[in-house]
Amino acid sequence: MNCLVTGASGFIGSALVKRLVKEGHVVRAVLHTTPPLYRDSQVEYITADLTNPSSLPTVVHDIDIVFHCAGIVKDYGSKKEILNVNLKGTQYLADVCDKRIRKFIFLSHLHSKSTTNAGAYSYSKALAEHYLLEKHRTEQFPMTIVRPGNVYGPGAKTWVVRPLQAIQQNRIALINNGTGLFLHTYIDNLIDALVATIDNSHITGEIIEVTDGDNHTTWRTYFSDLATIARKPSITRTMTKTTALLFSNYMMMRYYLFHIDPLVTPTAVQILTNQRTISIEKATKLLKYRPSIEYLEGMKRTADWLKAEQYI
Question: Is residue 276 within 8 Å of 213, Cβ to Cβ?
Fold first, then answer.
């Protein structure tokens, strides 16, 4: 298949490009301003701005499968910019795909909410989902939404490097004693699910949630395991969700007044106190998805990568 991967310089996009090449697909990788994590002579790399629709027809020319992984992954910053990239960029890309496109796979996330107080990132993903679902309903556009959980593993910055560095600098605290559920999704497991969409003809119009299928691992367990990897003591500092929300709102006010990056955001508090469990039954049924890397093995591989990259 001729596959297009947007966000190809990112953590998930680069892993997907690598797997697609390994499995013999023809890959066109879309970059914006960041160079790819790895280069392959078999990949066609192109630079494009998804918010500029006039440049997109050549991007999707002769493409069978679109994997739309690009986006601004921040829960603070310019709401206008985040919506421009995550919503309008998705709309422009979907609209330029002609009827020869077999599938449009949109990478969303589990915490998408259709309310503005969920954070600009979640809000933009929810609006993009709504747009694609409507486009499918009215135009039979062949879209599928994949919602992964908290994606971790070698190369992950958001859920590996950043919390590790916070632990190393002793500036991390649990919320509600860390009892929130860590809906982990090991990177290779997610890529398995994404690749499985290629040859599946029964997923058009579907929303598929993908995690490692573990609804028991807490944030206390995960952060404690990261602390062990970093040879730091287990985390004992904790605060209530109410206190954390007050602190995160103060952090956001400081950010908007003085442009100081927040240590924690209201969206992060919601994720770290999550009690929602996720079923992967639909992913198993539609994609034959079965997570091959369990939590302990995933953490071992993550630790090996952190050592190799001299983070620890």
Answer: no
Residue 103 lies inside a defined structural domain of this protein? yes
Please state, in angstroms and as integers, the Cα–Cα distance from residue 46 to each residue in 4, 61, 153, 177, 270, following that order. 10, 12, 27, 46, 37
pLDDT digits (tens, 9 = 90+) for 29-38: 999 888 887 7
- The range of the structural domain enclosing residue 12 comes to 2-148
| Region of poorest pLDDT, from 4-8, 108-112, 283-287 | 108-112
Tokens 């697609």 belong to residue: 20
CATH number at 64 reads: 3.40.50.720
Q: Tell me if 212 is assigned to some domain.
A: no
The amino acid occupying position 229 is I
Residue 196 lies in a domain: no
Which residues are within 8 A (CB) of 6 and not within 5 positions of it... i.e. 6 or more apart?
A: 13, 30, 50, 66, 67, 68, 69, 70, 93
* Neighbour tally for 255: CB within 10 Å: 15
Q: What is the pTM of this model?
A: 0.95
In which residue are the tokens 């998408």 written? 112
Assess if residue 74 is contained within a domain. yes
